[in-house]
Specification:
Layout (H helix, E strand, L loop, with lengths): L8 E2 L26 E7 L4 E8 L9 E4 L8 H4 L5 E10 L4 E7 L1 H12 L11 E5 L9 E5 L7 H8 L3 H7 L5 H11 L45
Antiparallel strand pairs: 1-3, 2-5, 2-7, 3-4, 3-5, 5-6, 7-8
Length: 235
């Protein structure tokens, strides 16, 4: 039985994003990595929401690896271990530094600030103006990310072409929940279990190694953090 409270896919800024509480495109350069300091972008799509766990094998002192949550399909091995999935969002954006289309992957820390702009009558729809995502590495968690609007300006002809060509199907695919079997396979692979696709389960809980005080740097994710799933949640 599926969990109807789990939100995924394209959402709007008035949605309760917490629900009350294969087209190949696998180039890591497609993802925009937020650098320390200002990052100027133009959002050209709606936000696409998905749920994800961070999982690491015993003894791993790092941030862990992303594993999609399968609870929408009725069960999730990581949820069963007591690890609560977190919501994240994909956007298609124009990276003003390169002038190229990129996929931006953000946590609630950034999404909430974009949503505040969208709900502000002065600014409104954030696809109508550029924004600066200011990263202050080493700052306190509440000040690690800031989002600043740039005065409204229409898209250029080249910008409009990038927006028109934004691959919405790719964003939908990226936020499609995997099956429980695929989550288990991903866990097995992270743990180095032989035959990751044979259904063998890993019972050990994620390591309890203390995380760094500021964990926002885990937003600097690359494509390899995201295994490929089609619309049926299969790899």
């Amino acid at each position: 039985m599926s969990n109807n409270n789990v939100k995924f896919g394209e959402v709007d800024y008035e949605s309760d994003v917490f629900g009350g509480d294969k087209k190949p495109n696998n180039n890591k350069d497609l993802f925009l990595r937020l650098a320390d300091g200002p990052n100027d972008v133009r959002l050209v799509t709606s936000p696409f929401q998905y749920s994800v766990h961070k999982y690491k094998k015993e003894g791993d002192p790092g941030f862990g690896q992303k594993v999609g949550c399968s609870i929408v399909h009725g069960s999730c091995p990581l949820c069963e271990l007591g690890d609560k999935a977190k919501s994240r969002w994909f956007y298609g954006v124009i990276d003003r530094k390169t002038g190229h289309y990129k996929v931006l992957d953000i946590s609630f820390a950034v999404f909430s600030k974009i949503r505040d702009l969208a709900r502000n009558a002065k600014w409104g729809d954030p696809t109508k103006y550029d924004i600066t995502i200011l990263v202050k590495k080493g700052a306190a968690p509440n000040d690690y990310y800031n989002v600043q609007p740039i005065p409204k300006e229409p898209l250029s002809a080249s910008d409009q072409q990038l927006k028109d060509n934004a691959d919405l199907d790719d964003l939908k695919r990226r936020c499609t929940p995997p099956t429980a079997e695929k989550v288990q396979e991903r866990m097995n692979k992270i743990n180095g279990v032989d035959g990751a696709s044979n259904g063998k389960k890993v019972a050990a809980k994620p390591t309890s190694t203390k995380a760094p005080a500021v964990t926002m740097a885990s937003d600097d994710s690359l494509e390899e953090d995201f295994p490929e799933y089609n619309a049926d949640g299969q790899a």
